[in-house]
Write a structure and sequence with these properties.
Blueprint: E1 9-11, E2 26-32, H1 34-48, E3 60-64, H2 69-73, H3 86-91, H4 95-113, E4 116-125, H5 127-138, E5 145-149, H6 155-167, E6 177-183, H7 190-195, H8 199-215, E7 223-229, H9 238-249, H10 257-266, H11 272-287, H12 295-307, H13 312-325, H14 330-342, H15 346-359, H16 363-376, H17 385-392
Helix pairs in contact: 1-9, 5-6, 6-8, 12-13, 13-14, 14-15, 15-16
């Protein structure tokens, strides 16, 4: 599509190569201006995904460095623009072609070569934010989530903004989420911005028009947020806004052990497993694809109920839920083995540890199994006279 070779930077969650857990597919973030934003964005996602309380899942991050930024990230070409070199202005307006590259080349490549799910997020800053908005308006089904960081809606005499105005009035964005961040680019209040004839003033006014369009069309199916960052400039807004965008997008996923325990306390006749199933059924309906309770979270909750709360039946229900969802996970079978061992059911524990080792050889599980088997042999049972006599020789 672009008639050139393009490099991309790809970050894959470490769990993808962890053979003790079940294989899974991950949502994918496609990040424009990859050379500027890849490192902190991938690190931020890794950190936030470590706790279900943030709601952010583990994700593959695809950073797309630029070759001709103005060409690829602008959807139209102005007749003139003061301050831009003529050759750069002449190349502008290739945004649709770049979007075709994403759709027909890059996305299929990522899905063919990496454990990628079909849940996709597009993040862009400045001109990148402009392309994000153009993609939402003209290719809404290409991504589930759109993040426009201080988008350059002023470009080409607000040409795209006019298209956004018309598109948002139509009910065709069901299942899509948009987060728009607006920096205080001019360093002045809205009154001064309204009168400022400079690019900064035009930039600010265009973003406020976008905010008004989002507010006046609540019935178009789009879940959206517009957030203003009064202490951040055009350049500094990207880090806090990316974090806020992730929190907003994946808020439906958010869950904590404390919240589940609080629900259990209010509904003592229900178990945590049923509550988790109900929660993630709602999440699945909202995001449009099946989302299972995270294996590690369920295991952690089960262990807490077993060891700290003494609620063995509820813990077992959670271990069994994990087994149902992740039957090929060595870690799940090991967790169930720990449960049976704590409940003094050694034969079941041995069977679970054995299955875990069949799936993935792990020294820690091998040690647990060996110690348990020793205890189950006549020589390992304390108080056995036969064992004592044998040892005396």
């Amino acid at each position: 599509m672009l008639k050139e070779q393009r490099k991309v930077w790809i970050s894959v969650p470490a769990s993808a190569s962890d053979l003790t857990h079940a294989k899974q597919r991950y949502p994918v973030v496609f990040l424009l201006d990859g050379e500027d934003h890849f490192v902190y964005t991938s690190g931020m996602i890794q950190r936030q995904s470590e706790s279900p309380e943030t709601g952010c899942p583990e994700m593959i991050v695809v950073g797309i460095p630029n070759t001709q930024r103005t060409r690829d990230l602008t959807p139209s070409r102005p007749t003139s623009f003061e301050g831009m070199p003529p050759e750069e202005l002449k190349a502008a307006g290739g945004g649709e072609n770049f979007t075709a590259f994403l759709e027909k080349e890059l996305i299929p490549y990522i899905e063919a070569h990496y454990p990628a799910s079909a849940h996709r997020t597009l993040i862009g800053h400045s001109f990148g934010g402009l392309l994000v908005m153009n993609t939402l308006v003209h290719h809404a089904n290409l991504f589930e989530n759109y993040v426009a960081l201080d988008p350059s809606m002023w470009w080409d005499s607000e040409n795209l903004l006019k298209q956004v105005h018309e598109a948002l009035a139509q009910p065709r964005f069901k299942g899509r989420t948009l987060f728009v961040a607006s920096a205080n680019a001019s360093g002045q209040d809205s009154v001064l911005t309204a009168k400022d004839p400079s690019i900064s003033g035009q930039h600010g006014r265009a973003k406020w028009k976008l905010r008004e369009d989002l507010a006046r069309n609540p019935g178009n199916g789009l879940r959206s947020a517009f957030r203003y960052y009064p202490t951040d400039s055009h350049g500094s807004v990207t880090v806090p806004a990316t974090s806020d965008a992730l929190n907003y997008i994946f808020q439906p996923y958010a869950l904590s052990i404390a919240s589940i325990l609080a629900l259990i306390a209010k509904k003592p006749t229900e178990d945590g497993a049923a509550m988790l199933v109900a929660h993630y059924q709602q999440v699945s309906a909202q995001v449009g694809y099946s989302v299972l309770p995270p294996e590690s979270f369920v295991n952690g909750l089960a262990n807490y109920l077993l060891t700290q709360e003494g609620q063995a039946p509820r813990a077992l229900a959670l271990f069994q839920l994990n087994l149902q969802n992740y039957p090929t996970s060595s870690n799940v079978h090991s967790g169930l083995g720990d449960y049976y061992q704590a409940q003094k059911q050694p034969n079941f524990a041995i069977a679970s540890y054995t299955k875990a080792l069949q799936l993935q050889e792990t020294p820690a599980i091998r040690k647990k199994l060996a110690e348990l088997q020793v205890k189950q042999t006549p020589l390992g049972k304390k108080g056995s006279s036969r064992a004592k006599n044998t040892l005396k020789g």
